[in-house]
Amino acid sequence: MYTIILMSSRGNSVRQHTIGRGRVFFLCLVVFIVCLAAIGGIGYGLFQQRQSINAEEKLQANQEEIQQLRQAKLQIESELAIINEEMKDIRHMAKTIQEALGIFGQGGGNPPWGSEGTEEQTADLQENAEATTDAATHEDEMQKSLTPRILKEEILPLYNYTSTSEKQIDGYPSILPVKLQQENGEKFDFWYSSPFGWRTHPLTKKREFHQGLDIKTRAGVPVVAAADGTVVTIETRGYFGKTIEITHEGDQFKTLYAHLQGYAENLKVGDKVMRGTIIGYVGNTGRSTGSHLHYGVYDTKKEEWVNPINYILDQQPTFSP
User: Fold this and answer.
1) Strand pairing report for 197-200 and 207-210
2) In the listed set 23, 45, 78, which residue is the last one of a domain according to the structure?
């Protein structure tokens, strides 16, 4: 048992209360539970507050990320729009070039080398035309969904045609076969001392047909291949002296370089040479009145020597008197 004494401040009143142990224990238990509940409530409130703060922070971060993604999306859409416009411009240019070159498959014109192209050239053109025509059949669908793959398919015939044409052009003997500009800056003069066709030979004084073009210049000036090709002959040939023969573009053309002083180092039959490759040097070997290059172009299709002047595109000086 427990006795609780209550006394007034003046000391004139005293009260006593007797409480059993069970009640005291119960009262302490209630107080403990109330304190525990209060502490739990405060902790839960703080936890909820922290959770709310974290949620707000995550929401803010998500909103910022969403905003960044939206900006990135707008940037990508803008770049894609620019790329798509560029692809359309490329398509337009490709079609314009195809039509100009006559490979569009709709009567666009003749090939650059005229109506006498080889069978291989004709086959290439037909193949390119068919591929381009197939692409044009679905033009409306392609315009709606222009993609790099579609654009590549459209440009591929043009690329193949250009590659074939470049190979053919490289095989045409279209440059002056002497290297006049030297690495040290020196430049040699030249002129055509004897044209292609009928002439009076300077030594025999007889009228004969000259099957080449005589290019007069200083002895030792480098002689270069007039086009891409294969060396088929390196020999000393009678009145031509030291000579080189090269075949070009599917053996359609053959070029002859005669009266050479000598050959380029390590040059041999079977070598592949590119246009501008040094193959020899201007000389005076064989039956000749002075240092010069006899340059001939043979058309195997026509089976005759043709005028080299018709193929030289870079320099056209007047003939010497």
Assistant:
1) antiparallel
2) 78
